[in-house]
Model the fold of this input.
Amino acid sequence: MNLVYAFDPERFYLGKPCKAEHYWPDSALSLRSIKHHYCVACRGRKKADWLLSFIDTAAMGLADNERLGPVCKGGHLWHGRELTLRAKGKCLECERARKRDLNPDQRKQKNALARASYARRPYDSELQREKNRAARERLKGDPERFDRYINLKRQYALEQRRNRGMVPQELRVLRKAIRQAGRLPSVARLVAMEQWRYWRENPEAKRQAKVEQKKHQWRFKYLTSLDLRLYTREKARRRKLRERKQATWKISVLQLRARFSRFNHCCAYCGASGDMQIEHVKPISQGGLHHISNIVPACLSCNYAKHTDPMERWYRSQPFFDPARLALIQSLTGSPETEQLSLGLAC
Done:
């Protein structure tokens, strides 16, 4: 078999002969690099075998993983030439001889590893057809050998299928349909599609679902936003006072936050932290005003325990009484005269 040489015209070209007289086969020219213009044979790492990398194995009908290299230690020549046919860098004849020399246990272990590797490899029908076509081209001169090769592969595939359990025809058809269908929707997507279909057929149910969703969203915002809680609670107090026809002042959220920050957002009485209530120091039922000068933060327990009692008398009777907190409360809350003046201005 004649050797076929080829090179990439985008990287190399045939130029004038070099000083060492390295000629391209069947020509009086040297192979040079387009980028640096030096002779490839003179600059190569293996000057003696520089033509090996330019052998076109595809044009010669060799397999994709087969290459021609230097003569192996066993002296196996390829078609009488000073070359050896290799696959993955190993001589094919040496590998066959090594396999023949294996004892039964070693051969059994090697075959088991090969079968496991083959089972993990995905099966591609088009790639297998290409391999069979290439093998047929290589074995045109020996059809009996090719038939034995194909029969062995079929027997091995049948044995593997028997070991794993034969797949019924219906299941194979179902798997093929799933592969051809492409990417299937997820469970969440299917549930959402069914929900949209139900809403299209029942618009009233969709409206009710939107109402419930808005309620949940508002509840979540109420639980996570201090400003919204303060605004809502202050608005509810003003509404109750208007129903009782009492004087009211609109207290902004900024005023409430400033007052709560004076107590470090803790209870003005016991110092506990958490969700604070709007506490009127002088109860509204006793003539107190809904004004920032009459408001301090208080925990739910202190707010309920104080109820309508006078603040100072109730606070002094508690086990958590603190004179410093009492002085701070009295300094921030207005006196009765100031409250009466404010009431007169509001009227």
Observations:
- The radius of gyration is 46 Å.
- The beta strands are 12-15, 30-33, 66-69, 84-87, 90-91, 277-280, 295-298.
